[in-house]
Amino acid sequence: MIITLSLLPLILAALSGGGNAQVSAQGTRRLRDRHQGKSSKYEVWGSDQSNSVENETTPGVKGSFLWVWDSDSIQDQLAGGEDAVPLSCSPDKASGPCDLLDVFPHNLMQVAQNGTELGELGDLSRFGRLHGVIEDPSNRYVTANIFAPSGGYVGIMDTQTKEAVGLFRVSKTTGTGTARSVHMSEWTADGSAIIVINLHGKMVERIDVERKPNMGKITNLQLNKSAGVYLGKDFTLVEGATSFKGENAFSRDLLGEVVGSYDDADTGDLTPAGVCKESRCGVCNESGCSGINNQGGVRTNNVPICPILSSNNNGYITMGSGGLFVLKLDQTPMKIVGEYGNAIVNGAGCGGVEANNRMFLNGGVSASNAGATQSTFTVYAFEDAKFDGNMFQEPNQNIPSPIQVFKDPTNTNTIGNVDGVTVPDTTGQLPSITTRRDSHGAEATIDGRYLHVADRIQNVMEVFDTDSLQRVNTYDLVSIDGKSGRSGPAAACLRRSVLDDASLQRNDPAPDLFDITPDGKYLMIAFRGPKPVSVGHAAQGSCPGVGIVELTEDGKAGKLVDVLRSSNTIDKVKVGSIAGGHNYMGAERSDIHGVIVVEK
Fold it and tell me: SS3 string of 274-304?
């Protein structure tokens, strides 16, 4: 069952405890209470997926650039001064951007759990495509999610010194052939663990974090094999998880080890409810397959996408083809306490936040080639506390029911949706002609009152009231006032657009993942480039970098005021064909996918 907004008048009182719920943003995706105006000083970290070397023929497979800007420099730029200068992550460089290959030196040694040395990092493949960095609740550390397919690397960095602290390579399985990759990771609310999404391995893995009291300095990192949950079927391990040892760029030793056993992990085919984690598991015949049938749709390809974590130690794991798992993160192995079919929670969500005592998740188009004719903009809400009961009662499917906050009526009937348009949307992604939508990225205002969700194709932000669950505003990223669209004076993306291909449509931000500044004044939004490394059919943009959106109307609206431009002309990868877009002929390869704000 999905609760739609037409039923909300009957249930809102129950959802809010019988009266008007006090708006609370406690414990959001990255702990909203860390951004309570304690400091106006911060850094903006942008993850560039392009290669940081020039001799590669494949996009996003070796190195990457990390762009870090200081708030003082940003304010100078906003005041009309020089463009903000990125900071360095190396002791021998005065300015950035930071090269992933410098942060994690080539001579780091890969080490198996038993101590066997397996080779140096520089000799290993696919160490590239920085998909995003995610800060811990203390703002002292970040994870570096290195997404090149078959790579499978996740690093930990110190935000104060910008140095590497640890590096791991996740498990290789036969989940999608024989592969592994780290799409994204997230810190638990108390900073005691990192939840790692192994997309191509179809696993959720956990790094346990030992640190000094009061969420202090990290003293050890342990990738715990016993904690893992395999979401596919017919689990076969090809290579176990490993750690790396050696000195970072500051001549300090990395932390990290692998512990535990896959024998203790949840690698079976069935959920606690006796249902196939991935449809058609076990022995199948004309009558069906072993295990209880999926209800509320199916789960045909359980590649996990993003972990959206709650302050209650629940992890909402979105999946590419639809469906959802909710894991209790402090159990070993992590325990499935919620499961949903793809007709209940449609696919390809990557954006979520906790606000007003609810968890909000979105749904967008598929990253695969099938996504080129999909259109998806959906937002769901869950009552997170209700999963506590699932720990101790008979497990069931699709319980508790999600609230469907918003579903665009033009959504195509794909990745689980059955309520929309039955024909493919072939209008591409060019701003002047496309009708497609793609929800990606979500963030709440500091007070938790409003939820902002980006549309990567339409270049707009949708705003929802987290109490009433109504859509209350739409503002655009292409006009100065955020209200006039392309009919009004153009916003900053136009003058910041790439100029070396006259046929590339300018003023096309292509917004992606984003974060809010600690004073609540700005959203810092990743703007994609003209040669998108991932999801090329929905993410071509003209002004790569970080868009600075000033929030207005007490957080209900916004307008783009400038762009922190990134650039990469070192990478010489050929552009090739951009599905539904423009086959760009210029030299720019920068492609910012994720942005965070680190409070100082």
Answer: CEECCCCCCCEECCEECCECCCCCCCCCCCE
**Mean pLDDT of the 345-355 span:** 95
Nearest to 546 by CA among 483, 476, 594: 594
Q: Is the peptide bond before 59 cis (omega within 30 degrees of 0)?
A: no
Q: Are 532 and 591 in contact (CB under 8 A)?
A: yes
pTM, two decimals, is 0.94
Q: What is the token pair recorded at 181? A: 């990759």
pLDDT at 153 over 90: yes
The reply to whether omega before 333 is within 30° of 0 (cis) is: yes
- CA-based nearest residue to 29, from 385, 305, 310: 310
Q: Which of 15-19, 308-312, 454-458 has the lowest mean pLDDT?
A: 15-19
What one-letter code names the amino acid at 312? N
Cis peptide before 9 (omega within 30 of 0): no
Task: Please report the pLDDT score of residue 497 as a whole number.
Answer: 98
Separation of alpha carbons 271 and 280, rounded Å:
13
CA–CA distance, 145 with 155 (Å, rounded to integer):
7
Q: How confident is the model at residue 432 (pLDDT cuts 50, 70, 90)?
A: confident
Report how far apart, in Å, the C-alpha atoms of 470 and of each of 26, 37, 106, 376, 527 are. 21, 27, 51, 18, 27
Local structure of 464: helix, strand or coil: strand
Does the pLDDT at position 7 exceed 60? no
Type of residue numbered 44: V
pLDDT tens-digit readout, 473-490? 999 999 999 999 999 999
Using CA atoms, how far residue 549 sits from 39, 361, 442, 491, 538, in Å, is 19, 22, 14, 10, 21
Mean pLDDT, the chain, as a whole number? 93
Q: Is 78 helix (H, G, I), strand (E, B) or coil?
A: helix
Q: What is the 3-state secondary structure (H, E, C) of 218-239?
A: EEEEEEEHHHCEECCCCCCEEE
CA 198-203-208 angle, 5° bins: 80
**Structure-block tokens of residue 199:** 């997309």
Q: CB under 8 Å to 6, separation ≥6 — which residues?
A: none
What's the pLDDT band for 440 if we cut at 50, 70, 90?
very high
Burial class (CB in 10 A: 0-12, 13-18, 19+), 409: exposed
Is residue 48 within 8 Å of residue 64, measured between CB atoms? yes
Whether the CB-CB separation of 578 and 430 falls below 8 Å is answered with: no
pLDDT in tens, 60-89: 999 999 999 999 999 999 999 999 999 999
Strand partners, 594: 47
Task: Enter the tokens of residue 535.
Answer: 């999801």
Spatial CA neighbour of 168 closest among 254, 90, 269, 98? 254
Return d(Cα 224, Cα 229) in angstroms, integer. Answer: 11
Q: Which two tokens stand for residue 324?
A: 């959802």
DSSP annotation of 58 reads: S
- Distance (Å, whole) CA 446 – CA 558: 14
